[in-house]
Amino acid sequence: MTVAAAAGARLLLIDDDTDLLRRLSLHLRASGYRVVTATSARHARARLGTRRFDLVLSDVHLPDGDGLALFEDIRRQHPALPVILLTAHGSIPDAVEATSRGVAGYLTKPFDSQTLLRHIGQALQFAAPTAAAPSPGDAAWRAGIISRSMRMHTLLDEARLIAASDASVLIRGDSGTGKELLARAIHLASPRAAAPFVAINCGAIPEPLLESELFGHVRGAFTGATSAHPGLIQAAHRGTLFLDEIGDMPPALQVKLLRVLQERAVRPVGATRAAAVDLRILSATHHDLDAALAAGQFREDLYYRINVVHLELPTLAERREDIPLLAEHFLRQLTQKYGKRLSGFAPDALEALASANWPGNVRQLQNVVEQVCALTTTALIPRTLVDRALRVKPVDALGYAGAKQRFERNYLIQLLKLTAGNVSEAARLAERNRTEFYRLLQRHGLTPDLFRGDGPDIEP
């Protein structure tokens, strides 16, 4: 049994021959794999859109398409997912073409089970990271990234593969999408994980200070330099240097950084000798660097040095399925900070969060959750607080639905006041049964106890 099988790798098996599907599924499950089946390309695409797979085995001839076309779709959506094609009418030219297009394996039916298992094992081993990196089941490296989104899981699969190499990575994404979190995850999944991860925001530090922070300086290099400072590039020796918002780096410093990447050595300000450095560069930006290149604002040679591999982080609006998960995660963190015992968000509050625009992405969501956590006076956070934090305007006072809701609430309050909180009497006056009347009270957040004895007044 392969290592991947022992780890329970999940396979997607696609074929319109149901007897073959059943036989292969039984054999692969007996070998330690988890198997999901599909009988058409459409069915397979639906499966791929709802869960993660470690490998796909597909027949070349499907009732609604061919395996190579499906493979091209998979490669666009899931670049790190290996695909093995199965065919009853294979030829050498077909196999050569499939392999040249990136297919992990090409088997002609009938094939023996050991040959199939060998191809699966080889494809999984080739797709897996090196031994120095975490195994597919080890999630510690990406523990800071909370997500159930298929798009994010595909991105993380790519990040885990990239982490095993020393290639420079450019992470693109809007502000607040989590570029530094992804960079840190890549570092933790890499062979450099035990060495320092050093981050600097190139747009947050004035140019004269940025040069000293990055490259360091010797004593007396400039007024105020009373002692030597090694700089962040040297601090990241044997580890990872993360240059956030590299698109804001001044042109003069772009030249110096390029020299560091070419020579693998850094010369501090005022020094006559360079010091060797061994580090990996990860960069991030929310700018369009291609436009900056065209405008002459970013060096082309540096661009190709830092952009060996690029990863694109989706906006929060593009991964809405993660919003409730993230909101609850932030709420759990903040309950300790504010010393409150909170049970969560009301269903309509979560609905408001999930449907918001989120121009500030995950960072904005975290701020909204902190605001409602600080202001709530109930264990269950209501929608009104969420709308306030999102600056959602209240319903128009002249709107029919709002007017009807206010009339109904005021009517219930008057009945409860008149009957001193006696629900049976109030329901009789309203000509409603007791169960229906209780549902109305719950809808408007009214408790009969508040109207009994000297309970607090309720403002309509």
From TrEMBL:
<dbReference type="InterPro" id="IPR002078">
    <property type="entry name" value="Sigma_54_int"/>
</dbReference>
<dbReference type="GO" id="GO:0006355">
    <property type="term" value="P:regulation of DNA-templated transcription"/>
</dbReference>
<keyword id="KW-0805">Transcription regulation</keyword>
<dbReference type="Pfam" id="PF25601">
    <property type="entry name" value="AAA_lid_14"/>
</dbReference>
<keyword id="KW-0808">Transferase</keyword>
<dbReference type="InterPro" id="IPR001789">
    <property type="entry name" value="Sig_transdc_resp-reg_receiver"/>
</dbReference>
<keyword id="KW-0547">Nucleotide-binding</keyword>
<keyword id="KW-0804">Transcription</keyword>
<dbReference type="InterPro" id="IPR058031">
    <property type="entry name" value="AAA_lid_NorR"/>
</dbReference>
<keyword id="KW-0418">Kinase</keyword>
<dbReference type="InterPro" id="IPR025662">
    <property type="entry name" value="Sigma_54_int_dom_ATP-bd_1"/>
</dbReference>
<dbReference type="InterPro" id="IPR003593">
    <property type="entry name" value="AAA+_ATPase"/>
</dbReference>
<dbReference type="InterPro" id="IPR011006">
    <property type="entry name" value="CheY-like_superfamily"/>
</dbReference>
<dbReference type="InterPro" id="IPR027417">
    <property type="entry name" value="P-loop_NTPase"/>
</dbReference>
<protein>
    <submittedName>
        <fullName>Putative sensory histidine kinase</fullName>
    </submittedName>
</protein>
<dbReference type="Pfam" id="PF00072">
    <property type="entry name" value="Response_reg"/>
</dbReference>
<dbReference type="GO" id="GO:0000160">
    <property type="term" value="P:phosphorelay signal transduction system"/>
</dbReference>
<dbReference type="Pfam" id="PF00158">
    <property type="entry name" value="Sigma54_activat"/>
</dbReference>
<dbReference type="InterPro" id="IPR025944">
    <property type="entry name" value="Sigma_54_int_dom_CS"/>
</dbReference>
<dbReference type="GO" id="GO:0005524">
    <property type="term" value="F:ATP binding"/>
</dbReference>
<dbReference type="InterPro" id="IPR009057">
    <property type="entry name" value="Homeodomain-like_sf"/>
</dbReference>
<keyword id="KW-0067">ATP-binding</keyword>
<dbReference type="GO" id="GO:0016301">
    <property type="term" value="F:kinase activity"/>
</dbReference>
